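hey can u check if this looks right to u? its 117 residues, i copy pasted from the old doc so theres a chance i mangled smth
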Amino acid sequence: MSEVTIYHNPRCSKSRQTLQLLEQHGIQPKVHLYLQDVLSEARIRELLKQLGFSSARELVRSKETAFAESGLNAASSEQQFIAAMAAHPQLIERPIVVVGERAKLGRPPEAIVELLS
């Protein structure tokens, strides 16, 4: 199997559950603490492609305080969403699991199982 990476927030229950699920499958993933080691705009774009998302908005946590503080709204451009996620990583939906060139959002955690086969 290709290297497995989890973009992880240890304070998030879904992220902890997804990491535990990986470990239950015998996988010790590379853990990327994205709130500390902030993602570049280029990496966010790459993750969007790997996830198969058609819009950066699909990866944004719109209920976060930083969403309103960033001035984001439904009319915001792709570039504005990506720049906001790079500047405020708490806006990035989590967890994201990457296996090779494919990625999946661990919401619910079981959603990542298809990546493991």
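Residues 4-116 form a domain with the Glutaredoxin fold (CATH 3.40.30.10).
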